[in-house]
Amino acid sequence: MGVLGDIGRRARGAAALFTQPLLPDDLLGTLNPLWSASEPHARVVGLRRETADTTTLLLHTPRARTPHRAGQFVGIGTRLDGVWQWRTYSVSSRPRDPRRLAVTVTAVPGGTVSGALAHRTPVGALVRIGPPAGEFVLPDPVPEKLLFVTAGSGITPVMGILRDLVDTRPHALDGAVLVHCDRTPDELVFGSELRRLAATTGLRLVERHTAAEGRLTPDALADAVPDWAARETWACGPAGLLDALAGHWDRFGDPDALHVERFVAPAPVADPGTGGRVTFTTSGITADAGPGVALMAAGESAGALLPNGCRMGICHTCVGKLRSGGVRDLRNGDVHDTPGQSVRTCVSGAAGDVEIEL
Ligand SMILES: Cc1cc2nc3c(=O)[nH]c(=O)nc-3n(C[C@H](O)[C@H](O)[C@H](O)COP(=O)(O)OP(=O)(O)OC[C@H]3O[C@@H](n4cnc5c(N)ncnc54)[C@H](O)[C@@H]3O)c2cc1C
Ligand code: FES
Question: pTM, whole model, 2 decimals?
């Protein structure tokens, strides 16, 4: 990789002198996608099967990336049937080396991308990779009393946080509590590493095996962690659990002390409007965005490489300027049609034909 990186750097310099009208980056990306600066790629250099449906992909980027903070996520693009599909994955590795990182993907039944990444991506495959984003991170200094509540693949960003703490601030794990749920002990993602962590640090691990004990409720959580209200809490898991926790913290705790990461966007509005044709004016790509289809999803299906992060309206990575026409916010049905205004393409549909500067 080091040699390839050097060749890439030298080739970039030479190409900058000799290529027109192709930009050097276009040419280098054609020679080897790993050299492209504008469309960063990573190579899968290792795979680790965590459970029957969850796999960790170890990625290597030839160029140093923007470093992530523990708990953040990246966009991962993978080519399926000739179309680049993008999804968001939390970084499960510690932020030690800006050229290596890991994402841990659970195959969702019926999902387009997760099954392909978790089960059908070989070592050596190329994926695209976006910049890190997200607010699900610990503040500095780290709060004295930490609580993590996770279920299923929701452990992934917390694993990144825990691994980072072991490396950089192990004292913060002393007295911290992790309540982690999955169906059975064998299906608990990162189960053996977490048990080892609990045995070797001050972290208290509470496993809940839902096949035998049922789903975690706020009352069961309060039984397991009686001082929950005195702790700063990071929670990630299915929407039902997160909604229940948010309601509990609203009623009986301090809502500001609960930090939540959602993997699935809230349900869209019942009436998604008419849809329309979207034109991305920078790339010139045009696509049909049917009723309820986000502009981003429509553009990606037509081959557009669009900036994205959370894909659910929280990170503002995907914003483009509205040049003409109107868009509908798919979360609440509001229509916006003021030229020049910012549009989050991941949660906006077309309200008739629309042009977006992207
Ligand atoms: C900030 C953020 C971080 C994320 N981090 C991770 C991570 O570390 N590991 C990981 O495995 N996933 C993570 N996800 C979820 C991931 O981005 C995809 O949504 C997931 O892999 C499913 O993609 P898919 O293409 O297979 O399913 P899609 O084809 O997009 O959806 C198929 C169906 O599955 C449902 N669905 C989508 N995602 C989930 C889910 N996570 N659980 C249950 N049902 C779902 C959808 O509602 C839909 O009905 C994260 C999402 C966000 C927003
Ligand atoms: S991708 Fe995060 S707001 Fe759209």
Answer: 0.82
